[in-house]
Amino acid sequence: MQRATSHDGSLTRVEFSGVWTMDEFEPNKAMLAQLEAAAPKQVEFDMSQVTAIDSAGIGMLILANDRLTKAKIDFRLVGATGTVARILEVAKIREIITIV
In angstroms, what CA-CA distances link 51 with 5, 34, 43, 83? Predict the structure, then answer.
């Protein structure tokens, strides 16, 4: 998986691409710590280029939501399509995390 971070005023956008698996858990935990330290007003995970996600990826999204929300940072997912969108739907992530 690849990721790129950009900033636009109070919004930090993290664009992910590729397959999101257990191998991404530790690197993404470190990224979350950096986001918490930077304390932007809003964080958006762009999932439009993610081609697959496993249960560890779902767990990371929930962890991101928990940590960023506790840090008073608005968090949302955008752009999920195809299989990834379906997995998020089946996992009922929309009940926990804002999906645009």
Answer: 18, 25, 21, 7
DSSP E strands, 1-95: 2-8, 11-20, 42-53, 74-78
Along the 100 residues of the chain, how does pLDDT read in single tens digits? 899 999 999 999 999 999 998 888 888 889 999 999 999 999 999 999 999 999 999 999 999 999 999 999 999 999 999 999 999 999 999 999 999 9
Domains and CATH numbers, the chain: 2-99 (3.30.750.24)
Q: Distance between terminal CA atoms of the chain?
A: 22
For the stretch 17-36, what's the b/e string if a residue is b when 16 or more beta carbons lie within 10 angstroms of its beta carbon?
A: eeebeeebeeebeebbeebb
Q: What is the rounded distance in angstroms from the CA atom of residue 74 to the CA atom of residue 79? A: 17
